[in-house]
Structure formats: structure tokens, C-alpha cells
Design a protein that fits this description.
It is a single chain. The chain is 8% helix and 36% strand. By secondary structure, the protein is mainly beta. The protein is globular, with a radius of gyration of 17 Å. The chain has one helix at 27-36; strands spanning 40-47, 58-61, 64-75, 80-88, 98-102, 105-108, 110-112. It has two domains: 1-38, no CATH class; 40-112, Elongation Factor Tu (Ef-tu), domain 3 (Beta Barrel). It has a seven-stranded antiparallel sheet with strand order 6-5-2-3-4-1-7, with no helix packed on it. It is built from one helix and seven strands; from the N terminus they run αβββββββ. β2 and β3 (64-75) form a beta hairpin.
Length: 126
């Protein structure tokens, strides 16, 4: 996370205790966002293509850039390129149509709900 994103947008609202005593920087902004609901949500995506990426790549939907990848890299234990990025709430979890642009070429992405893992630990045991 960076100062550009809030814990509510990152799905960490359960760790924000607005009912606790005491003030902290950003409390009023978080209270407003909690009441209205966040406008974007952190999403995880995978690509079947092995892409040389590291984050900062544009995320496309419907022919327009809707966000940037906040982080990206190859997940060796799941054999996929993994991206994370904040999408507008109405696009979060989109089944199709999300693309990433790497070196001027767009590649399809698949939104993933929940953590990526290798449940039988097979990828680490080549």
C-alpha cells in the first residue's frame, strides 16, 4: 500500500477500528469513505502468458485504460504471471475483457478471487 490507496480499497477494512478511542491522521477521510463505500478495489489477476513485467503497466477494459498494475511478477508455484491493481468497483471481479499492456502488446487477464496457491505443493517439487 501507498498513501494513494486506503485500507478500505485494499480489502483491509477489518483492520481499521474507527470505533476506537483517539484520533489519527486520515480518520475523517476513512469515515467518509466507509459511509459512501470505496470507489476502487484491489484485484488480483493472472495471465497465461509468461510476461516480463514488474508493475506500472496499464490495465485496459472496454478499450480504455482504467488503472495501472501496482505490482506484477511470475508466480513460480502457480506457473502464472500475477498482477495486482486497483479497479473501479463496478469492474472489480470482471469475468472477461480485462487486459494488460506490456511493451505495446495487450494480453488478456483473468480476475482471481482469493489467494493463489498450489494446494498439493506440487510445483515446488519438480
Amino acid at each position: 500500500m501507498t498513501p494513494d490507496y486506503t485500507p478500505l480499497e485494499a480489502g483491509l477494512g477489518f483492520r481499521v477500528h474507527l470505533g476506537a478511542k483517539g484520533e489519527f491522521i486520515g480518520r475523517a477521510a476513512l469515515e467518509r469513505q466507509q459511509a459512501a463505500g470505496p470507489k476502487r478495489r484491489l484485484c488480483t489477476f493472472v495471465s497465461e502468458d509468461d510476461l516480463p513485467v514488474f508493475g506500472g503497466e496499464p490495465i485496459w477494459f472496454g478499450g480504455r485504460v482504467v488503472s495501472l498494475a501496482t505490482s506484477a511478477g511470475y508466480g513460480w508455484t502457480v506457473a502464472r504471471t500475477i498482477f495486482m491493481g486497483y479497479l473501479p468497483v463496478e469492474l472489480a471481479g470482471a469475468e472477461a475483457g480485462v487486459e494488460i499492456e506490456a511493451f505495446g502488446v495487450r494480453y488478456p487477464l483473468r480476475c482471481v478471487a482469493g489467494p493463489l496457491h498450489d494446494p498439493r505443493n506440487e510445483r515446488l517439487k519438480f
